Amino acid sequence: MDRVKGKIMSKDAFLQNIPYTKEPYEGILVSADTQNNQYKIAVQLSENQVLVVDQVKDSEVKERLLEWIPRVNDIQIQYGVNNDPENYS
């Protein structure tokens, strides 16, 4: 499997000035990007770091989450994350 590419950023930067953020599944975050009228989907790599894997329109969020959620553990493994839910690092 190819390494999933995306933008690695701090969790604080991902959440900064965002009116809506949700963690619909352990290890994945969704935030509203109101300036661009889309949602960002990110996989949590550590307590303070996320990998932005997708940007989608409002109407595509549920469908894309169904695609990304089964891949969370594989992505975290690719980036060297220990999958202990109590410790992301």
Largest sheet: 5 strands, antiparallel
**Helix-strand category:** alpha+beta
What is the alpha-carbon Rg in Å? 12 Å
Strand content: 35-45%
Summarize the amount of helix as a percent range.
10-25%
Helix-strand sequence: EHEEEEHH
Q: Could you say which overall geometry the principal axes of the C-alpha atoms support?
A: globular
Ends: how far apart? 23 Å
Mean pLDDT: 86
Across the major sheet, the strand order is 1-5-4-3-2
The domain tally reads: 1
Low-confidence stretches: none
Number of strands: 5
Please tally the helical runs, counting DSSP H or I stretches of 4 or more residues. Answer: 3
In short:
The chain is an alpha+beta fold and 89 residues long.
Structure description:
- By secondary structure, this protein is α+β, with helices and mostly antiparallel strands.
- It has one domain (7-78).
- It has helices at residues 11-15, 61-68, 72-78, and strands at 7-10, 21-25, 28-33, 38-46, 49-56.
- Strand 2 and strand 3 (28-33) form a beta hairpin.
- The longest helix is centred in the last third of the chain and has 8 residues, at 61-68.
- The radius of gyration is 12 Å and the shape is globular.
- The two termini are 23 Å apart.
- The model has no long low-confidence stretch (mean pLDDT 86).
